Amino acid sequence: MSIEHGHLRGTLTLPSGGCVVCGGFSSRYEDVDQLDLDLPLGALARVDRRIGGYPFNEHSGVESLSWRAPLDRWLADVAAVVHGDVPLQRALIGFEVDEDADIADDRRYAAILLPSPEGLDYRPANA
């Protein structure tokens, strides 16, 4: 995908075998390139009932890590493949991530990947 193409749409097969719609978008802001891969929650909820009304229901806290952690890990693996071709400065995985609030070490609502000598250092969500 090049920056000129804008938003792309398609489907992908999750590790669980479920097929969901997805979107991709590339942008550049202040000479920083950004690539987003979007998996709509409604599509994910159709293939995994645990997702329910996340992040707006009573099961949206730490309990949601039961389904989020494996999905986040898989997305981290996707980021690692991208990193092999286009080095990443950082990758964030989560729902509408607020970079200032959602990636604190003590209470991380989003997973984060940072470059390391071995490739990418994966720090999973813990809240």
Architecture blueprint of SSEs:
Layout: E1 7-13, E2 19-29, E3 32-38, H1 41-47, H2 65-85, E4 91-93, E5 111-116, E6 119-123
Antiparallel strand pairs: 1-2, 2-3, 4-5, 5-6
The number of helical segments is 2
Provide the gyration radius in Å: 15 Å
What string gives the helices and strands in order?
A: EEEHHEEE
User: What percent of the residues sit in helical stretches (DSSP H or I)?
Assistant: 10-25%
Strand order of the largest sheet: 1-2-3
Overall structural domain count = 1
Q: End-to-end span in angstroms?
A: 32 Å
Secondary structure class reads: alpha+beta
Biggest sheet details? 3 strands, antiparallel
Shape: globular
Strand content: 25-35%
The number of strands is 6
Unreliable parts: none
**Average pLDDT, all residues:** 89
